[in-house]
Amino acid sequence: MGRARPGGTARVCETGGVSTTRSTAAGKVLEVLAAFDREHPAQTLSEIAQRTGLPVSTTHRVVGELAAWGALERREDGAWHVGLRLWEIASGCPRTQILRDVALPFMQDLYEATHENVQLAVREGTELVFVERIAGHRSVELLTGVGTRFPIGSTGMGRVLLAHAPADIQQEVLDAPQRAWTPHTVTDPGTLRAQLDRIRREQVFVSDRQLSESTVAVAAPVRIGRTGPVSAALGIVFTARGAGGARGLREPLLRAAYGISDELGRRTRTTD
Amino acid sequence: MGRARPGGTARVCETGGVSTTRSTAAGKVLEVLAAFDREHPAQTLSEIAQRTGLPVSTTHRVVGELAAWGALERREDGAWHVGLRLWEIASGCPRTQILRDVALPFMQDLYEATHENVQLAVREGTELVFVERIAGHRSVELLTGVGTRFPIGSTGMGRVLLAHAPADIQQEVLDAPQRAWTPHTVTDPGTLRAQLDRIRREQVFVSDRQLSESTVAVAAPVRIGRTGPVSAALGIVFTARGAGGARGLREPLLRAAYGISDELGRRTRTTD
DNA sequence: TGCGGCGTTTCCGTCAGGCGGAAACCGGTC
DNA sequence: GACCGGTTTCCGCCTGACGGAAACGCCGCA
Q1: Distances (CA, A) of A128 to A160, A234, A241, B264
Q2: Which of A34, A161, A228, B82 has the fewest CB atoms within 10 Å distance of its CB?
Q3: CB contact, 8 Å: A124 with chain B?
Q4: For B89, which of A34, A62, A108 is closest by C-beta distance?
Q5: What proportion of chain A, given as a percentage, has pLDDT over 70?
C-alpha cells in the first residue's frame, strides 16, 4: 500500500502502540485520555503526541479542548495531567460508587480488627481492577493500588472472582500460561482448576505467597444478595509469617462479605 | 472564509443552557460525559440527548463511540452509565490520587480514635470537592459524598479552604449572598470575614450546626510541607449533642493534618 | 551575544468525516 | 392493530477537523 493513500481507507493506525479507537474525532479524544495510565500520570504535549501516535498539532488542539472543559489540567512545569472535573464525573461510576458506599463501613470494621490491608476488587474480562483499599500505617506496602489492573489469575482475590466467572472466561484464563511470580505460584492448569472448585465449595480462599514472597491474602466473594451473582471480591493481605494468621481471619472476612452482599441485595432491589 | 466573521472569533456560543463546550466534535463527547452527574448516574439515550441538547442521532453516535472504548457502559435495562475504563483513567488524577495515598493512613487513625466521619476535600474555584471520606457503621449519615461539589462557604472544611484562598476568591464568595442552611448558619459577610481571620490564627475551626441542625464539623488545613500552600482540608463531622465534643478532637485532628502535610511536602519534593 | 535544538503554538487550505433529518424498527399499551 | 416513546439505521450536504509547515519561545552551549 505505497504512499498513494488509496481511497483514504487505510487508516486503521496500527501505531505499534497501545489502544487506538480509530481516526474518528471522538476517538482522538479518547486516545489522548488513554495516554494517561498509572505509569504516565503527567506528560508534556509532545509525549502525549508520541504515545498516541497523533500529530503534534492535532494533539495540541485536542488537549486544548479537554483542558478548556476541565478534563485535563496543566502543572506549572507545563506537563498535563487528568483534571478534577473528569475525576468527579468518573467517580460517579455506579460499578465502583455503589460498591464503595456499601462496602466501606464493613471494610472499616475489618481493618480495625486486623490492621492489615483490606481490599475490594471487581472483574473486568480476564483482569481484575482494584476498586477500594484501606491501609493504615501498620499495614504492608503493596504493589497494587486503587484503579490498578491485574491479570486475574495472579491474585487471591482474582482467583475468587475467576471461580465464579462464566465458563468461557475461566477457560480463556486457564488456557493462557500463568506467570510464576514466586516459587509458590500455582501455574499448572489442573491444580488451578481444582483450586477454583475448592473456592466455590469453601467460599474463603487463602492465597499463600502466590504473588509475592512476603504476603498472604485471604479472599471471599461478594454477591448481590446472599445468593445472587458474584459482583466483587473482598480480601485481606498481610505479611507472610506463616500463613497461620489466615485462620483467624476467615470468620470475620466471611462475615463482612456477607454483610456487604446483603446490603447490596437490599440496595439494588430498592433502586430498581 | 465566508462571512468574514472578524478574526473568526465569534464562536463562544452562550447557548443559555447548562455546560456547553460547543459544536466541536470533542465538545460533544465532553457534553455527553458531563450529562452524568451525581443526580443522573444512569440515563437512557434520549435522556442524554435531552439533557445535552444534542439531536438523538448525534447522541447515539457519540454514545456508541464512548461505549466502544469503555467510557460508558450499558445496563440490561438499556440505561447508560459511566464505565469502569473511564473510572480507571480518572482515578489516576494526581490531585486526588496523591492526596488520597498520603492522607488515608492518617485518616484511618483518626477514624479509629473517633469513629466519626473523617473527610478530605480540596478547593476548586469557589467550590469544594470531597476527595475522600471514611465512615463506619457508627458514624452519622451525611449528605455529602466523595466526588460531590459544594459551595465553599457552606461547610466547615470549605471555610478553612476559603480562609487560605487567594484574596479575589474570598472577595467573590463574601460578595455573594450566603445560603442559610440552619438558623445557626453565619451569613453576614463581616462575621464571616472575622471567622476567616480566626481560622488563619487558630488553625482548627469548629463549625457548629452550620450546614445541618444535627451535625458539628471540625476542620484543619492540609499544606504541602509544614509551611507550604494549603492544598486541602481535613475534617471530622459528628452529631451535635453539644459541641463540647469538638474540644477533644482539636489535638488529634491537627496532628493528623500536620502528618499529612509533612508527608506531602516530602513526597512532592522527591517526585520533582 | 549569537546559534542550534527542542517543545509549543499559530496558521490555513483541503477534503474527509461529522452532522442530523427522516424514515425504519422495536417493544409496550390501550 | 393502531398508537406511541424510544432506539437504530441511512445517507447526502457541507462544515469544521486535520495536520504540514512555519513562527515562536526558551534554554544551554560556545
Answers
A1: 11, 12, 26, 29
A2: A228
A3: yes
A4: A34
A5: 89
Give the residue from B77, B89, B120 with the most A CB atoms within 10 Å of its CB, the best one to mutate. Answer: B89
Q: In chain B, helix, strand, coil percent, each to 5?
A: 45, 20, 35
For residue A96, the model assigns a pLDDT of: 95
Of A71, A108, A124, the CB nearest to B84: A124
pLDDT at A269: 63
Contacts of A69 in chain B (CB under 8 A): 21, 27, 30, 34
Report which residue type is found at A172. Answer: E
Say whether residue A25 is in contact with chain B using an 8 A CB cutoff.
yes
Strand partners, A43: A80
Q: Encode burial over A132-170: b for 16+ CB neighbours within 10 A, e otherwise.
A: bbbbbeebeebebbbbbbbebbbbbbbbbbbbbbeeebb
Residue A244's pLDDT is: 59
Put residue A129 in one of left, alpha, beta given phi > 0 → left and psi -120 to 50 → alpha. Answer: beta
Residue of A28, A51, A89 to mutate, interface with B, max B Cβ within 10 Å: A89
Q: How far apart are CA B262 and CA B264, in angstroms?
A: 5
In percent, how much of chain B has pLDDT > 70? 89
| CA separation, residue A246 to residues A163, A249, A254 (Å) | 20, 5, 12
